[in-house]
Design goal:
With 549 residues, the protein is an alpha/beta fold. Helices cover 30% and strands 24% of the residues. The structure holds zinc ion.
């Protein structure tokens, strides 16, 4: 009798039984993980779905099934916290078996471990295959800290998160969470040389293609680092020599420009180095490479924080963003502030008239769901909906009484910039291309970060859109690109590939070549890599002997 309910319940599971565990002696299942079973006692206080998500189920002891509810459910991510004690202070990392019913529903999968009030976070991971158990390995050395972590010996929970890319329900499975010492070891010089030789041999067999938009983002306004011998001429020549035909250069923020501007103050970094737009443009003309001027939106300056005076002025004028706790963000400007909007528009229009081939929006979004709750945003929101908000900001936060109206307001405040810049540039600088770097999920970016980029495509305000598809997984890249293709209409889709952002140890030439082939096989005619710098230049020569001939 006691087995009957379990048998009946078992038939409802979708995830198949997992592998029985690794034979490798360096791998050991985490003891507290094996205690997780379907009994109520085991579940209580252990598994915490994020708001809007369904409770985890236990396929068998130590194996969980996580029902992903994306159909008719506005959640941006499927996420669960599972309490279990982990100590990897003497181990190289953890590994686990992962099963995914439908990878196309996710734009990103991530694994975290909680320690104290902070989290150890991984680079997004992806399985090699769908509907098969795949082993995922997380090296301790690849973890980043978010918040205040107490140490690798005091991990109290894991978190598994999948960001929405689709509108269908699916299921993921998680099993055999294990300690491991079998992480990828650093290759010796000789091993590395052998790997690179084999990669080059394979890369040379790949076909090239004509008529592609082959581009790089360049985060530095000074080309390859700004050293006297590595300025714009070398930066552009290295692209041209290796089969690229466009560069997108970060020449402006909201509080500074790296060229002579009547709208934005000059960057203090420019002193003694001259107008970077003119220098870059001269090199682009010389080598026949398109120049697209990339401007950050609603953020005063770069990570160098040389924008103190500008940030102080923004604070004085009441332009700073405020989060839901009432704290001002020192470098971020309020997207719904009309004075800020005017300046952003004028800066883009001025840029478009400087003889560039295109202008490029970046960070054209809100910081997250927790901004902007400044006084001005509240006033403008209340004016838009025609009533006062009873409980601020609670009513506007996810799950609040006015969450939908607030999401519309946030998205519209961002859209207003793109729409007006497009209207002005089409008239005042016709022929200049308009593009944007965007997050990668057509169905959740509007709600999550107020970035309604599929609308900008449908309305024809953009000529080209570059979703930041920063994954190493060809499977996930393919699924992202397919969802994006369906959303962009006639606008050129140019996927952003994160060569600088891939984790340590990744064979960058092989991965770049694989991803170029994924993009081509999807029927697309362009891609853009992040980021053009001295470290990546050496990979380009190898690609030039294969898919970029
Ligand atoms: Zn605001």
């Amino acid at each position: 009798m006691t087995f009957l309910p379990i048998l009946l319940f078992a038939s409802a599971f979708i995830v198949p039984p997992p592998p029985t565990g690794a034979d490798d002696l360096t791998v050991q299942v985490v003891p507290s993980w094996t205690k997780l079973t379907s009994s109520a006692q085991s579940m209580r206080g252990r598994t915490f779905p994020m708001e809007g998500n369904a409770q985890a189920r236990w396929r068998c002891p130590g194996t969980m099934e996580l029902p992903v509810k994306f159909a008719d459910n506005p959640i941006v991510r499927a996420s669960w916290d599972i309490n279990c004690d982990i100590d990897i202070s003497d181990r190289a990392g953890v590994e686990f078996d992962f099963w995914c019913g439908d990878i196309s529903q996710f734009s990103q999968l991530r694994f975290y471990m909680r320690s104290g009030s902070g989290w150890y976070a991984t680079w997004p991971f992806a399985p090699d295959k769908e509907r098969e158990w795949c082993r995922i390995r997380i090296a301790k050395s690849d973890l980043n800290k978010e918040g205040k972590c107490l140490g690798f010996d005091k991990i109290s929970a894991i978190r598994i998160s999948g960001w929405r890319n689709g509108t269908r329900d699916t299921v993921i499975g998680l099993a055999n969470l294990s300690y491991t010492d079998a992480v990828a070891k650093k290759l010796t010089k000789a091993e590395l040389a052998e790997r690179d030789r084999k990669t080059l041999e394979w890369v040379k067999t790949l076909p090239s293609a004509s008529g592609e938009h082959r581009a790089f983002w360049c985060h530095s306004a000074f080309g390859l680092g700004g050293a006297p011998d590595k300025g714009w001429d070398e930066a552009i020549r290295s692209l041209k020599d290796n089969g690229f035909n466009a560069i997108y250069v970060n020449l402006a923020w909201s509080g500074c420009a790296y060229y002579k501007s009547d709208v934005l103050p000059p960057s203090p970094q420019m002193a003694g180095k001259g107008d970077q737009l003119e220098q870059c443009k001269a090199a682009c003309r010389k080598y026949g490479v398109e120049l697209h001027a990339w401007k950050m939106c609603w953020v005063t300056g770069g990570t160098n924080r040389s924008d103190g005076a500008v940030a102080a002025e923004a604070k004085r004028r009441g332009w700073l963003q405020m989060n839901d706790k009432g704290a001002e963000l020192p470098h971020a400007l309020c997207p719904s502030n009309p004075e800020v909007l005017d300046r952003e528009i004028e800066a883009f229009v001025e840029l478009a008239k400087k003889g560039v081939d295109g202008i490029h929006f970046d960070r054209v979004r809100h910081s997250g769901t927790s901004t902007c709750f400044c006084r001005g945003c509240r006033e403008r929101f209340e004016r838009k909906i025609g009533k006062t908000v009873a409980s601020w900001p609670a009513d506007a936060l996810p799950g609040g009484a006015l969450a939908k109206e607030w999401a519309d307001f946030r998205a519209e405040s961002v859209t207003a910039l793109v729409r007006e810049v497009a209207r002005r540039v089409r008239k005042e600088a016709p022929g200049v291309k308009i593009s944007a770097a965007v997050f990668n999920s057509p169905c959740s970016d509007r709600e999550g970060i107020g970035q309604d980029w599929t609308l900008w495509c449908r309305e024809g305000w953009l000529d080209r859109v570059c979703p930041m598809n920063y994954t190493v997984s060809p499977l996930l890249l393919k699924s992202m690109v397919e969802a994006q293709k369906a959303a962009v209409g006639n606008v050129q889709l140019v996927p952003g590939l994160g060569i600088s952002l891939w984790p340590r140890g990744v064979d960058r030439v092989r991965t770049a070549a694989e991803q170029i082939m994924v993009v081509r096989n999807a029927g697309l005619d362009g891609f853009i890599f992040f980021n053009h710098n001295v470290w990546n230049v050496r990979h380009l020569e190898a690609l030039h002997q294969g898919p970029l001939k």
